[in-house]
């Protein structure tokens, strides 16, 4: 299920906590001491990260069993996973598993709150590349578990012409024309999006072909966005409109404007509060 980059991340997280040299567990807990343990939610939210249970305890005696699936809503005291195996192996990897679970579930929970408000209008909630270095694939997975959609994974996925790219051109339209000429020579059909900061730029882009697949309305006010929808409907109905910039749960309702296709929100991944979970040992026995 997981890419090589996620597998490497799991290995790095285990190395970071030096799980093979847990001095406390190694001195106190002989290998023949086995246990059963449960992981339970301490808050209500959306579960994400339980799918990491098995790879995190790979090559140990511990057998982990998810009791809830990623993407499901959980409540306080709900058991989301059980583990059975050598106690020192359970405890040495406990924190790494809980850290992933808390971080990813926090992102999924916040995403769901945005999605629930936007869904009645058919507006998609997207993430951005404002992710924790090294954690992007997992954080974008968590967004999907919360019902959101992923913007491009990295710079090689799709084309997004931004303000700093446009600094090298006289007009956004000039940049678009040059881009499409090069794509035609390459015989490439790639999704193209361009960022605009005002309605004049939008008009310039949409008045005549070639049109982008989508336009990103950056930091526009709700009245400007309504005008942008009118311009798009008049000039190029098939072009998607995406809104971004300073959008929070508290002001989201101002941006839920008919005609907008999607809203991208950096805070889904850079400002989500972790959802709390705990692991509790329930039964200890000597094995062998």
Q: Using DSSP, what is the number of strands?
A: 12
Main beta sheet strand tally, sense and closure: 6 strands, parallel
**End-to-end span in angstroms?**
35 Å
The total tally of domains equals 2
Quickly give the structural class: alpha/beta
CATH fold topology of the largest domain: TIM Barrel
Overview in brief:
The protein has eleven helices and twelve strands. The protein has 288 residues and is an alpha/beta fold. A six-stranded parallel β-sheet has the order 6-11-10-9-8-7.
What are the key terms here?
11 helices; 4-stranded antiparallel sheet; 288 residues; TIM Barrel; 6-stranded parallel sheet; Aldehyde Oxidoreductase, domain 3; alpha/beta; 2 domains; 40% helix
Write the layout of secondary structure elements.
Layout: H1 4-16, H2 23-28, E1 33-41, E2 45-46, H3 53-56, E3 63-66, E4 73-74, E5 79-86, H4 87-118, E6 124-126, H5 136-145, E7 159-161, H6 163-166, H7 172-186, E8 192-196, H8 199-206, E9 214-218, H9 222-235, E10 240-244, H10 252-255, E11 262-264, H11 267-270, E12 277-286
Parallel strand pairs: 6-11, 7-8, 8-9, 9-10, 10-11
Antiparallel strand pairs: 1-5, 1-12, 2-4, 3-5
Helix pairs in contact: 4-5, 8-9
Q: Can you describe this structure?
A:
With 288 residues, the protein is α/β, with parallel strands linked by helices. It folds into two domains: 4-113 and 273-286, Aldehyde Oxidoreductase, domain 3; 114-270, Aldolase class I (TIM Barrel, Alpha-Beta Barrel), CATH 3.20.20.70. It is 40% helix and 20% strand. It has eleven helices and twelve strands. The chain has helices at residues 4-16, 23-28, 53-56, 87-118, 136-145, 163-166, 172-186, 199-206, 222-235, 252-255, 267-270; strands at residues 33-41, 45-46, 63-66, 73-74, 79-86, 124-126, 159-161, 192-196, 214-218, 240-244, 262-264, 277-286. The strands form three sheets. It has a six-stranded parallel sheet with strand order 6-11-10-9-8-7. A four-stranded antiparallel sheet has the order 3-5-1-12, with helices on one face. Helix 8 links the parallel strand 8 (192-196) and strand 9 (214-218). Helix 8 (199-206) runs parallel beside helix 9 (222-235). The longest helix is centred in the middle third of the chain and has 32 residues, at 87-118. The chain is elongated. It starts with a helix and ends with a strand.
């Amino acid at each position: 299920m997981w890419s090589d980059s996620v597998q490497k991340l799991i290995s790095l997280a285990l190395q970071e906590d030096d799980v093979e040299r847990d001095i406390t567990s190694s001195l106190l807990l002989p290998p023949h001491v086995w246990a059963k343990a449960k992981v339970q939610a301490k808050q209500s939210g959306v579960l994400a990260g339980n799918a990491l249970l098995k790879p995190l305890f790979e090559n140990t005696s511990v057998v982990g069993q998810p009791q809830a699936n990623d993407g499901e809503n959980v409540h306080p005291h709900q058991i989301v996973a059980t583990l059975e195996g050598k106690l020192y192996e359970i405890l040495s990897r406990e924190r790494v598993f809980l850290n992933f679970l808390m971080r990813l579930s926090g992102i999924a929970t916040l995403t769901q709150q945005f999605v629930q408000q936007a869904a009645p209008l058919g507006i998609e909630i997207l993430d951005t590349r404002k992710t924790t270095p090294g954690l992007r694939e997992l954080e974008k997975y968590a967004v999907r578990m919360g019902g959101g959609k992923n913007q491009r994974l990295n710079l090689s996925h799709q084309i997004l012409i931004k303000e700093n790219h446009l600094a090298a051109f006289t007009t956004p339209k000039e940049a678009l024309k040059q881009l499409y000429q090069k794509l035609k020579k390459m015989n490439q059909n790639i999704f193209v999006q361009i960022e605009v900061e005002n309605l004049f730029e939008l008009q310039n882009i949409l008045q005549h072909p070639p049109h982008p697949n989508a336009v990103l309305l950056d930091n526009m006010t709700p009245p400007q966005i309504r005008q942008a929808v009118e311009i798009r409907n008049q000039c190029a109905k098939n072009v998607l409109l995406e809104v971004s910039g300073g959008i929070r749960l508290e002001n989201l309702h101002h941006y839920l404007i008919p005609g907008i296709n999607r809203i991208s929100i950096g805070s889904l991944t850079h400002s989500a509060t972790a959802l709390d979970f705990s692991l509790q040992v329930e039964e200890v026995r000597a094995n062998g």
